[in-house]
Amino acid sequence: MFRRLSSLKVSRMRGFSALVQTKALVNGNWIDSSSRQTFEVKNPATGEVIGNVPDMTVEDAQQAIDAAKQAYESKEWRALTAKDRSNMLKKWHGLIEKHAQEIAEIMTAESGKPINEAKGEVVYGNAFVEWFAEEARRIYGEIVPSGQPNREVIVMKQPIGVAALITPWNFPLAMITRKAGAALAAGCTVVVKPSEDTPLTALAVAKLAEQAGIPKGVINVVTTKKAAPIGELFCKSPDVRGISFTGSTQVGKLLFRNCADGIKRVCLELGGNAPFIVFDSANVDKAVDGAMASKFRNCGQTCVSANRFFVQEGVYDKFVTKLKERVEALKIGDGKCSDVQIGPLINKMQYDKVSGFVEDARNKKANIIVGGKGLQEVGDLFYAPTIVTDVPTSAHIYTEEVFGPVVSIIKFKDEAEAVQKANDTQRGLAGYFYSENLQQVFRVAKRLEVGMVGVNEGIISAPEAPFGGVKESGVGREGSSHGIDDYVDIKYICMGNLKYD
Ligand SMILES: NC(=O)c1ccc[n+]([C@@H]2O[C@H](COP(=O)([O-])OP(=O)(O)OC[C@H]3O[C@@H](n4cnc5c(N)ncnc54)[C@H](O)[C@@H]3O)[C@@H](O)[C@H]2O)c1
Ligand SMILES: O=CCCC(=O)O
Asked: Where is the signal peptide (predicted)?
């Protein structure tokens, strides 16, 4: 069965104290909550409290909005050229790179993410800062040939103003840089509300932004457990011109509704329920590699994780046997051990959800061939990597996003059935399939109702690619040249009565 690591094998982590900030950042000042209240940040692998951060109030969040507005209108920010902003982002990128190890250690301590994955996330997240440093200089307008004489039609892109960024715990760095990089490149200022589970990574990168010379008030970080009232303030405040949210579909819908009155710009990156299809024409070894990468990245707590595996009859037994061997070999433990591959789930709520879903499948006569239980001997929040076969379509692991290390497998007969089942969900973030048949590749890629498709590939995220979903998985795209769109307004200037002769 699974290999567990003893604490003796835990590699020594260097102290990460230098970058750990335990105050919020408003208008360039590192401050406490006006209520003086704080909340604990815990290591999900051990339950140990690793820090206390300010539990900022709605009034504190209002101050952060005011600071962002003032900074947006100040000469220190508005007068900068695109090249100046690009250079600041490049400096920030350089500092994140320099402090990659410390940031990864903070991330592992507060999120439980295995250290090698945390280092990978620093590289991935920082790539958005670099990408948007480059894009900052390419926010082009247009001059369109006019239909009238003596007229010019000029189109320019201008920053929207203050943007509020609400981020989740599963990618504590990348979900901030993917938004803030684009916003700053466009010339906006931001108020970041990181997840209450992972505020320390957010504060650490904000500290580096300060060291990079990004002016006060341009990036504000509000740590809080009062997500709902502060989210409502962001939606209702006329000074916040855009909201970018990554998180659950449930909260995304609430924010979308609350932004309606102010006709605010909204970017929503929400949950998925990704199909992963293995056709008879697939290279099964490649498919198993892709399945492991897609499913077990961050212990399955990834919005683009494969959620439902559809495997065609001809390769079913081979795929399941090979996948089972790989799953049983996964190393589980405290993410600070350098060879751990599976850490804990983030919190008790997530643990209860995952274990409840597997119990539901068991009760509905699905077949649990590996795992299917908690690993309390390792820690309270550890759940065994699990494979469930013969999953009925009524099971929660089929209809819902599991967000945990659970593979649900369903056998299918033909392509039409696979595509119909893959699309049988209101979510549409990512989808994956394995096939060596070129005709099938194009057919299926076009028919999947998702924003992103991995063909013979389990890891698809990249700074230059547009990230986002369709259906209830969200609106807007992050990363790529499209990632700037949510932070700019298009302005048309009609130059009339021009005299050319
Ligand atoms: N599409 C993507 O890019 C993407 C990326 C990461 C996570 N996710 C999704 O996020 C979910 C898991 O993350 P989570 O549990 O942190 O989600 P969540 O929606 O509970 O929380 C996300 C953020 O929203 C805040 N929040 C919670 N309630 C709020 C409210 N009423 N108003 C304003 N803010 C509020 C939280 O404090 C946190 O900062 C999964 O469904 C996952 O698929 C999507
Ligand atoms: O969890 C969602 C984000 C993951 C990614 O950017 O690949």
From this structure: none
